[in-house]
UniProtKB/TrEMBL annotation:
One of its GO terms (molecular function) is phosphate acetyltransferase activity. The gene is pta. This is Phosphate acetyltransferase. Involved in acetate metabolism. One of its GO terms (biological process) is acetyl-CoA biosynthetic process. Gene3D superfamilies: 3.40.50.10950, HprK N-terminal domain-like, Isocitrate/Isopropylmalate dehydrogenase-like, P-loop containing nucleotide triphosphate hydrolases. Signal peptide: none annotated. Homohexamer. Pathway: Metabolic intermediate biosynthesis; acetyl-CoA biosynthesis; acetyl-CoA from acetate: step 2/2. CDD domains: DTBS (cd03109).
Length: 696
């Protein structure tokens, strides 16, 4: 099941707070521990905190430190985007969310507020965040002063846009004209897929009413009287500028009286009207112009039996009235009456039992590269391993090392001359301290003679003499591999400069394969936009036979599973099902049957074409009964020519991150790199190697 829900609005002033409060109450009735998270908050003033976070955490008594309840302010996000570091935004949001996910059974995530004009960026951000957190979405729209057609068009567009990236479980149309509520719900149900829950909440006037406290904050007012009644709702407001006898006729229920501070007649008349049975109640009085009534008037007010809030503001009557008229009410922690009202309204109009069941039982199939990389990092951190990098002079290797050391995820040994490596680091201005890593030169290492003798003993039956062993141990790949064999390192990553053969040969000579494994193979983790797929074999075996292809498939499925990817194996060929003829398709067909006989619980399909394996529409059209077609996560290529070209084509044309090749079948982890790799590729491959070492 999914461990959370993402509440996203598509426009300003949607009343999203009402929905969040109602959902929180609903979830707490179904789940023991519910957490709350806001990825991005509005820019608070230096002495303020986010109203949404304070309200939810305090009202529901959720044990989350304020700093852990959000990731960024709006300005921080914009600054990172302007620096080209949008990926850092998502990485930090994932990290914060995962921290809460470990502590709570379920997380309610509240999206941005659309409080700026850049609504396109906000919409994209909300989709990107929900996708990378693998969370389904509730879309909230508002119908204030909109026709039914406008609401439906907006909701339809939002639904279709989000649906391209994430699952939409519910749509809530809020603040709808009461007479339009039922027709709107029927029309939405006819336009939106039936598996999407539809809720329509009519406009509730008092929820939109600000309180006196909000006016105090808005106008930076000073409270003179009535601080215990600042939560009074303001349903109307009027200016007291005429004579009292005329002004009294303008009073309405729960009015805010706005008048200059020297109009004692209006002030006292409004207070008297408030306690009279013949006039409406007032919410409070705003005294403008920075004027305070004289002492006798203040004393008279103080002696009244009932006093509403009276505040003084510096602004003149005209400007104060304009600002009050534009006030958008918010729900805040101290206003328990409005919170309780919001929750009851949500419960009245939403089918909470059905919605709760949808949220709690939903299982997401989205697994983004960012989430995959986060999971890798967390696994590697749990049991820190020591990885050797033989190509210590290469810039990409040095930059990857700097990032790995900064993350404190592995211990690193670089092979090379320490002075030369230090010179390279300084020349390239790489933020790496040589004292934080181990640097070793093979022939000057205190282990050199021991390594030479060990290699000689292991290979003398192959006519290797001591001189040949010395030459071999002077080679960085042989030396690095021997470090693993002797337990001085846990794994090795090489190939940024050297060939695959140069990296793999020493491993095959004395690391050797695991018991029961007949063939060393490789996979790439292909990190596509919305999923991570496993491609094998794209680096080692030129033309495997049926038995070898079957072993590659089984090994690749085991690798996928060990890294959190559910293996659904597609045995690729130029035809799907029983239609194809020829030696190559027969080989794939035979390999598929071998896999089925050895791994009976593995989901596998073959032969199958690439498009039918990864495109659900094509897969269901060609192989409607298959549970793999259209949803394959492990793709096994019939030969190296096909696999290597395909992975490179996908990588270049889609911008996918290709992590690997990751070697399978060795007793200790040794992984190869493409000579066209980036420092990011090396970073990811080292982390994968460290995880493989944990499993030895």
């Amino acid at each position: 099941m999914s461990k959370g829900i993402y509440v996203a609005t598509i426009e300003p002033n949607s009343g999203k707070s009402v929905i969040v409060l109602g959902l929180m109450r609903m979830l707490l009735g179904k789940t023991a521990k519910v957490g709350y998270f806001r990825p991005i908050i509005d820019n608070p003033k230096s002495d303020e905190t986010d109203i949404h976070i304070n309200t939810v955490l305090s009202h529901f008594e959720i044990d989350i430190n304020y700093k852990n309840a959000y990731a960024f302010t709006r300005n921080e996000v914009l600054e990172l985007y302007n620096q080209g570091k949008s990926g850092d935004v998502i990485d930090q949001i994932i990290t914060k969310f995962k921290y809460l996910e470990d502590r709570f059974d379920y997380i309610l995530v509240e999206g941005t507020d659309f409080s700026t004009e850049n609504s396109t960026l906000e919409l994209d951000l909300n989709m990107l965040i929900s996708k990378n957190l693998s969370l389904p979405v509730i879309i909230v729209s508002q119908g204030d002063n909109k026709s039914v057609k406008e609401i439906i068009d907006n909701v339809q567009l939002a639904h279709d846009t989000f649906k391209q990236e994430v699952d939409v479980l519910s749509i809530i149309a809020n603040k709808v004209n009461p007479k339009d509520a039922e027709p709107l719900k029927e029309l939405l149900q006819s336009r939106i897929p039936s598996n999407t829950d539809i809720t329509v909440i009519p406009k509730i006037p008092h929820l939109a009413c600000p309180t006196v406290k909000e006016i105090v904050k808005l106008l930076d007012g000073t409270i003179i009287f009535g601080k215990d009644h600042l939560n009074n709702l303001i349903e109307n407001y009027s200016v007291g500028a005429m004579q009292l006898r005329n002004y009294l006729t303008h009073l309405k229920d729960n009015s805010l009286v706005i008048t200059p501070g020297d109009r004692a007649d209006i002030i006292l008349g409004a207070l008297q009207a408030n306690i009279s049975k013949n006039y409406p109640k007032i919410s409070g009085i705003v005294l403008t112009g920075g004027l305070i009534p004289e002492e006798p008037i203040l004393k008279l007010i103080e002696g009244l039996s009932s006093i509403v809030p009276i505040i003084s503001v510096k602004e003149g009557t005209y400007f104060a009235t304009n600002r009050i008229g534009k006030t958008k009410s918010k729900i805040y922690a101290e206003n328990t009456e409005k919170i309780t009202s919001a929750i009851s309204i949500f419960e009245k109009y939403a089918n909470t039992d059905t919605l709760a069941d949808k949220l709690i039982t939903f299982e997401s199939e989205i697994f983004t590269p960012r989430m995959f990389q986060y999971n890798l990092l967390q696994r590697a951190l749990k049991n820190k391993k020591h990885i050797v990098l033989p190509e210590g002079y290469d810039e990409r290797v040095l930059r990857a090392t700097a990032k790995l050391i900064a993350a404190q995820v592995v211990d690193i040994t670089l092979i090379g001359d320490k002075d030369k490596i230090k010179e390279r680091i300084e020349k390239l201005d790489i933020p790496l301290n040589v004292e934080d890593i181990n640097i070793v030169s093979p022939t000057t290492s205190p282990h050199y003679d021991d390594y030479v003798n060990t290699f000689y003993e292991l290979r003398k039956h192959k006519n290797v003499n001591l001189e040949m062993a010395r030459d071999a141990m002077a080679d960085v790949s042989y030396f690095g591999t021997m470090m693993i064999y002797k337990g001085h390192a846990d794994g090795m990553v090489s190939g940024a400069v050297h060939t695959t053969q140069h990296t793999l040969r020493p491993a095959l000579q004395f690391i050797k394969t695991k018991p029961g494994v007949n063939i060393v193979s490789s996979i790439f983790f292909m990190c596509l936009e919305d999923r991570v797929s496993v491609f094998g074999d794209c680096a080692i075996n030129p033309n495997p036979n049926a038995a070898e292809l079957a072993e590659i498939a089984i090994s690749s499925a085991e690798t996928a599973k060990s890294f959190g990817i559910e293996p659904k194996v597609a045995m690729l060929s130029y035809s799907s099902g029983a239609s194809g003829k020829g030696a190559e398709v027969d080989k794939v067909r035979e390999a598929t049957e071998i896999v089925k006989s050895h791994a009976t619980n593995l989901k596998i399909e073959g032969p199958i074409q690439y498009d039918a394996a990864v495109d659900e529409r094509i897969g269901k059209a060609k192989m409607p009964e298959s549970e793999v077609a259209g949803n394959a996560s492990v793709l096994i290529f019939p030969d190296l020519n096909t696999g290597n070209n395909t992975y490179k084509a996908v990588q270049r044309e889609t911008g996918a991150l290709a992590i690997g090749p990751v070697l399978q079948g060795l007793n200790k982890p040794v992984n190869d790199l493409s000579r066209g790799c980036t420092s990011e590729d090396i970073y990811s491959t080292v982390i994968i190697t460290a995880i493989q070492a944990q499993e030895e």
